[in-house]
Design goal:
Blueprint (H helix, E strand, L loop, with lengths): L4 H4 L14 E5 L25 H14 L3 E5 L9 H10 L3 E6 L12 H7 L3 E5 L5 H8 L3 H14 L10 E5 L10 H16 L5 E4 L6 H9 L3 H10 L14 E4 L5 E2 L2 H5 L33 H4 L12
Length: 318
């Protein structure tokens, strides 16, 4: 796989600093039952890296020490970590709002038949990847048969009350294909709701549009097709200063499967330690250290979060 790291190091992206820490985003491992073209984590069924029970205890201790009230679980497929259920229960017992970034197809994997009901019982918010409401587009991006299994997953979640009851939010994620910025999520959402309701009787709460980042698998694809420079030009010329104050790295701390911390999920994949540090810091060593006002590590990929209407784990910024 071709690496874009050296092409991103030199940057004129403006410096940014941390605000109050609100969300801990934890990557439970790179193991996934899918292998999507746009995946910046390079997750797949072949990956073996998963967070251990010991590190999960470190995560829970940090949540308690910092009084963090939002835990965002990602992967890979976070549900494929055997400790996923323990972590969710413990966090919910602490009064923490838990988000599961679910790929939907994992819900029909062997051994996961009860995962949807577990998520509902623990009132876990679900943010699910659904890059299009058309089968051809989804299968092209995520693999043959993924669309059909995703529809099954959404129906299962609706049966549990997701997207219907206020305490069970179900939000979908759109990623563009090719070298394009996402359209307005506020304009695209009604189309999603109409198509999924009319064709499959599926309901959900909100649609989030997220820009593809020029790193890992997507970055390698850009290089292989000779499109990397064109895509970077699009991101840079679409930069919007108004998005700078809302980027997720200001209020979110990212934790990798080994427990090391980063300013965001993308920096984690590039192995850029949090702040301007030259060495990685483990979550158990942060203690009561105040991160407010600290520098955020930046490279050219940061333009991906500030281009157009902006992009974050919670969708567009405008």
């Amino acid at each position: 796989m071709k690496d874009t790291f050296n092409l991103l190091v030199k940057t004129d992206f403006p410096p940014i600093k941390r605000a109050q820490l609100e969300t801990l985003q934890v990557n439970l491992g790179y193991l996934c039952n899918q292998q999507c073209l746009h995946c910046h984590v390079d997750a797949s069924p072949r990956r073996k890296e998963i967070m251990t029970a010991e590190t999960i205890v470190d995560v829970l201790d940090f949540l308690k020490q910092k009084n963090i009230k939002k835990l965002d679980l990602t992967g890979g497929a976070p549900e494929m970590n055997p400790e996923f259920f323990f972590l969710v229960r413990q966090a919910r017992d602490m009064g923490v709002h838990v988000i599961d970034r679910c790929n939907l197809t994992v819900l029909s994997e062997p051994g996961h038949q009860n995962t949807a009901s577990f998520l509902a019982d623990n009132r876990v918010e679900i943010i699910a990847s659904m890059p299009c409401y058309l089968e051809e587009n989804v299968d092209a991006q995520r693999g043959k048969g993924v669309f059909g299994r995703s529809i099954e997953g959404l129906r299962l979640l609706n049966q549990q009350g997701y997207g219907i009851h206020e305490h069970l939010p179900l939000n979908l994620v759109y990623n563009p294909q090719g070298i394009n910025l996402p359209p307005s999520q506020y304009e695209l959402e009604p189309a999603y709701k109409k198509e999924l309701k009319q064709r499959f009787d599926i309901t959900f709460n909100h649609l989030y549009t997220i820009t593809n980042m020029p790193i890992k698998r997507f970055g390698s694809t850009l290089l292989s097709k000779g499109l990397f420079d064109e895509y970077m030009h699009l991101l840079k010329t679409s930069y919007s200063k108004e998005n700078l104050s809302g980027v997720m790295c200001r209020t979110t701390l990212s934790v990798d499967w080994q427990g090391y911390v980063y300013d965001c999920d993308f920096n984690q994949m590039l192995e850029l330690p949090a702040g301007l540090s030259t060495s990685k810091k483990h979550i158990k060593d942060l203690g009561m250290r105040n991160l407010n006002g600290r520098d955020i590590a930046i490279m050219d990929h940061c333009y991906g979060c500030t281009a157009g209407r902006g992009s974050s784990c919670g969708g567009s910024l405008q």
